Amino acid sequence: MFSSVWRNIETQLTSYYFRGLSKLTAHGAAVSASPGAGAGSLKRCLVVPLLSRVNLQKLRTVGLRGMHSSLEDVTLDSMQVKILPALQDNYMYLIVDSKTKEAAVVDPVDPELVIKTVKESNVKLNKVLTTHHHWDHAGGNERLVKMWDGKLEVYGGDERIGAMNHKVCQDETFTIGTLKVRCLSTPCHTSGHICYYVTATNSNEAGAVFTGDTLFQGGCGRFFEGTPEEMYDALCAKLSALPDDTKVFCGHEYTLQNMSFARHVEPDNKNVQNRIEWAKLRRATKDPTVPSTIGEEKLWNPFMRVHEATVQNHAGISANPIGTMEALRKEKDNFKA
After folding, report:
1. With a threshold of 0.90, does the pTM exceed it?
2. How far apart are CA 294 and CA 238, in angstroms?
3. Mean pLDDT of 266-273
């Protein structure tokens, strides 16, 4: 019964917003529901007090249907990246070429939100970039392909990815309008994980890399199907080689949890301390903490700092960055903030 009531509440809130939220919030009194009250009483009890506590402007973008963060746009010279929250803490991304308005979506686990955003933005979606096969990243592919009117090219590096029709490997390239996409093979979290590095053609401006569950802000993914050597290669060879001003769009909102561990590893690192305070302010208003940059990750992410003496000393392993990577991951797996 409660689930059906909640669906009705969501529908009401949506309709109230489009009809004008001020009409709903003119009265703040709550209606108490007795133990034997019906669904109507329960709805009244829940809706009015709830809205009186919600920032109404944030409700427009965060909403109540699983959105952990507000929708936000990041504009670079040649592209726009629309940050789309999904599930409990996932991020999808809509990449739009500023010149042609061609677009690609990264890990579209919530096809309905993707289609809504594409239509509202009046862009031409024709590609899906899948970082890896886990359901919270690839689970919406097949549904999106069925729901979308046009043809979609679905990229990925693993046969387990649903609806994939373009399998890619290290250094393979393709385009989104005038934007160039280079694939980076980063196996470890899963054996077929791909990061997508997107840049403007014939330009030196900052690019963007979509790292899925390989590189997080302040952390990295678990080694489900790989080794410390592979994660070291992914983070400290391939991703570290990108320009420092490259924007990093990762797959989850894990910043505060990861930064807590980073502070545990390097308690005197001012970059970590400052980022934690910044992230707390962002999360207090449900704003996303992505993106960071490659250069910033080198300053505060312990998994990209395994060459640093302070990180190696914490791990108890000197002059061995791969051993440090392994020790940090094992510790992080059981770390309680």
Report:
1. no
2. 11
3. 98
